[in-house]
UniProtKB/TrEMBL annotation:
Domain HTH lysR-type: 1-58
Family, similarity comment: Belongs to the LysR transcriptional regulatory family.
Stored Gene3D superfamilies: Periplasmic binding protein-like II, Winged helix-like DNA-binding domain superfamily/Winged helix DNA-binding domain
Protein name: Hydrogen peroxide-inducible genes activator
The entry's keywords: Activator, DNA-binding, Transcription, Transcription regulation
Length: 314
C-alpha cells in the first residue's frame, strides 16, 4: 500500500469516474486502474462497484476511503511543517463562499491579501453552504466563507464578524415611513426571498417568525424565484414590497437607493459570518493570514459588534 494508491483511491471517490480521476492525478487511466487493482488485491476486498455508472464505493470501500482521507491528510502535514518555516507564503488557496457574501465581502479583502502574498494563487468559487461543506470534506476546498453555526462536528468554525440584516423597502410601501423596523412589521405577502437552498432565505423567514409570522411566501400576482439578492433589490425598486439584505450589500449604495434601506430596531437581527475548515485542515499559516486580512478589511462598526441577535441558520 502506498500514498499514491490512496490518492488515486480518493480521486476516484471524488470524481466517480476513472478517466476523470486519472486526468486529475495527471496519469493515464490504465495506470490508475492498475494501481487500484493492486490495492484491492493487497487488501483482499473490492473497493468500488464498477458495474454502476457513475462508479460507487462498496460498503467496505466507504470505510477504507474514510480512513484513507485521514492518512493522506496526515502525510500532507509533513510538507506543511516545512512550508510553515518559510517566511514567504505560497501555493494555492481554494476558497468557497456563499452567494450572499461573495459580491460584497470578496472585494473588501482579496486585493490586499494578494498584494501581501504575491506567491499565493487564490481560487474562489461561489457555492451554497452544503456544497462548500461537502467539498471541504473531500479536500476540494481549503476554506469556506459562510454563515454559522453549522452543527457539523467534522467542521471547525472560526467566527469573523456579525453582520446586521436591513430591510429594503419600495418607497410606496407603508413601512417606507418607518425609521426602525420590527420583525412583527413584516408581512410575508409583501416579502421577496431567495430560492430554497439558500441559508439566507431560512434566516429571513426566521426573522419573520420572531414577529409571530409563519413561513409561506407569496407576492401577489408576481411569483419570481431568484437566487440573486441583486435581482430582489431591482424587483423592490421597480415593482413593490420588501426584501431583507445583508449589511455589507448596502454600504456603497448611491444616495437615491440608500433611501430604500431601513434598519431594524435593537437588538438588530444578525448573522454570524465565519471561516470554516475541515477539522484536519492544512495550510494553517495561509488560512490564518486570510483570517487577519478579512477582519482588517471589515468596517469598524461591524467589527466591534457582538453576537447578540444572531438568527438561526436553519
Amino acid at each position: 500500500m502506498t500514498l499514491v494508491q490512496l490518492e488515486y483511491l480518493l480521486a476516484v471517490d471524488t470524481h466517480r469516474h476513472f478517466a476523470t480521476a486519472a486526468a486529475h492525478c495527471f496519469v493515464t487511466q490504465p495506470t490508475l486502474s492498475m494501481q487500484l487493482q493492486k490495492l484491492e488485491e493487497e487488501m483482499g476486498v473490492q473497493l468500488f462497484d464498477r458495474s454502476r455508472v457513475p462508479v460507487r464505493p462498496t460498503e467496505i470501500g466507504k470505510e477504507v476511503i474514510m480512513q484513507a482521507r485521514v492518512v493522506v491528510a496526515e502525510a500532507k502535514k509533513l510538507n506543511e511543517i516545512i512550508l510553515n518555516q518559510q517566511q514567504e507564503l505560497g501555493g494555492e488557496l481554494r476558497i468557497g463562499v456563499i452567494p450572499t457574501l461573495a459580491p460584497y465581502l470578496i472585494p473588501l479583502f482579496v486585493t490586499g491579501f494578494i498584494e501581501k502574498n504575491p506567491h499565493v494563487r487564490v481560487v474562489v468559487q461561489e457555492l451554497l453552504t452544503d456544497d462548500i461543506v461537502e467539498k471541504l470534506k473531500q479536500e476540494l476546498l481549503d476554506v469556506g466563507l459562510l454563515v454559522t453555526p453549522l452543527e457539523d462536528k467534522s467542521i471547525k468554525e472560526l467566527p469573523l464578524f456579525y453582520e446586521a440584516f436591513v430591510a429594503y423597502i419600495n418607497p410606496n410601501h407603508p413601512l417606507a415611513k418607518s425609521k426602525a423596523i420590527l420583525p412583527s412589521d413584516l408581512d410575508l405577502d409583501d416579502l421577496w426571498v431567495l430560492n430554497e437552498g439558500h441559508c439566507f432565505r431560512s434566516q429571513v423567514l426566521n426573522i419573520c417568525n420572531r414577529g409571530g409570522k409563519k413561513a409561506g411566501v407569496e407576492s401577489g400576482h408576481l411569483d419570481y424565484k431568484s437566487g440573486s439578492l441583486e435581482t430582489l433589490k431591482r424587483i423592490v425598486e421597480t415593482q413593490h414590497g420588501v426584501t431583507l439584505l445583508p449589511e455589507l450589500s448596502v454600504l456603497d449604495m448611491p444616495d437615491d437607493k440608500r433611501k430604500l434601506v431601513h434598519t431594524f430596531a435593537e437588538p438588530q437581527p444578525l448573522r454570524e459570518v465565519s471561516l470554516v475548515v475541515h477539522r484536519s485542515f492544512l495550510k494553517r499559516k495561509l488560512i490564518e493570514a486570510l483570517r487577519k486580512e478579512i477582519i482588517a478589511s471589515i468596517p469598524a462598526s461591524i467589527k466591534a459588534r457582538g453576537k447578540e441577535g444572531v438568527v438561526d441558520v436553519k
